[in-house]
Amino acid sequence: MTAQELDGAGEAGSSRSVVDRALAILGTFQGGRVRQSLSELSRRSGIPVATAYRIVRRLSDWGALERDDDGRYRIGLRLWEVASLAPRSMGLQRVARPYMQDLYETTHCSVQLAIREGSELVSIERFQHPRQARHRPRVGGRYALHATAIGLVLLAHAPEDVRQEVLAGELRRYTRHTCVDPAELVRVLADVRQRGYALADRTVDLDYVSVAAPVVGPDGSVVAALSLVVKHAEGSAPLLVHPVRVTAMAIGRALRDPGLLTPDVWS
Amino acid sequence: MTAQELDGAGEAGSSRSVVDRALAILGTFQGGRVRQSLSELSRRSGIPVATAYRIVRRLSDWGALERDDDGRYRIGLRLWEVASLAPRSMGLQRVARPYMQDLYETTHCSVQLAIREGSELVSIERFQHPRQARHRPRVGGRYALHATAIGLVLLAHAPEDVRQEVLAGELRRYTRHTCVDPAELVRVLADVRQRGYALADRTVDLDYVSVAAPVVGPDGSVVAALSLVVKHAEGSAPLLVHPVRVTAMAIGRALRDPGLLTPDVWS
């Protein structure tokens, strides 16, 4: 090891918590928190204001944070640029987008793609009908697995320990149709695996029905789920099962066969 | 100042460079670099391997980086989730998407939204025709301002010092149609401002023509530009000027009048 490396290693060793603190500050941006004051950043990250200020200044100089006219901080464009290279979302997004677009144009229903992260789902991409815009998932947002068709598909194909964890945890009842009984959920999930799709009728609010199907990746595992959302009153959810399933299969096919993709998709 | 704050301030003071180094490591992810080995991260960030390894471990524990099966690192889903809250891209994206979707469905041409960042453009959102997918801008990617219609619109409305910097810098000639003469570019940009749109005929490759118009934000300044891309052979570019302009105006109108937006847009 050279002197420079020893020097570098020593510095990083003593400062382990500083990287953690910088990340803790970035991590306070979640849910609806898009702009935060220095004192909010300090309080929510548990870092004293003086320390937080120094770290925030470094983050701002680089462009990970930006300062609003009113002095509050927001996530910066440069961090967004770097993060747009995250392969788990980007790869799927780029492959799935044209298929999702075709499904949206054909049905004019909101189309969503999500992956499972731990015991929640993360919305990766969506095409949304302007009149269905309220209260729909935000790209990059996290949601419970047990209450929507897309979540049920991801939960049905999750490893056994994840399924146990979710079933043993708090199962929020969004409407009287939300299934919150663990034993019944076990049956629902077996059904989803057996049928190859999930249908959730007014389980998040009383207006909408969602239909979802699994996207199978190159290694044969379920890497994502695709859903359509329709008004309950239209009664068309059963008609959407086939379109969602074939589109999810087409996305899986494109993921498994890079020859189907345009060259830049995996660049 | 409490003892805890003094302690915190002291630590942050001595470790200024550690946050910078962590950011330098993240910053090596750009362009086509989606997966990098530890030694690549070290070399490209200029940080000794031993130090880089310790920082990378902190970043991985938090989820800013993820490790591939082959040992290479990629941007992690958690960083992507946090960064999806960047207001400059997110706000515009959410407002513009339904309008861009309508424009795509009406024309079936690739639709792109971009903002200016310094002397380059950053692609914020796009709807892309599957057959035009090759070599088209990547969302989150940076591109030169002088060579496309969308870049010319952003450059035409940039502050004078930015325009001077771009005109004095290297102007890459992509095709024989790319304008690389500073004096001629000055005239082109004046024309873009006066007409309210830009048309770039085969300036990036010999197959495509792009048409772009400015999006005016709440303070009356140009905050973004919108473009359509068509095959040169179709000869339909002039017919697309009106659709692009009215759509760019509609997006500006939505940005200026929050009453037109669904409630979650600015949340």
TrEMBL record, chains A, B:
Swiss-Prot/TrEMBL GO biological process terms: glycerol metabolic process; negative regulation of DNA-templated transcription
IclR-ED domain mapped to chain residues: 78-257
SMART domains the record matches: HTH_ICLR (SM00346)
PROSITE patterns found in the cross-reference section: HTH_ICLR, ICLR_ED
Example GO molecular function: DNA-binding transcription factor activity
Sequence ranges assigned to domain HTH iclR-type in this UniProt record: 16-77
Keywords in alphabetical order: DNA-binding, Glycerol metabolism, Transcription, Transcription regulation
Keyword Heme recorded: no
One Pfam family cited in the UniProt record for this chain: HTH_IclR
Coiled-coil positions: none
Role according to the record: May be an activator protein for the gylABX operon.
Protein name: Glycerol operon regulatory protein
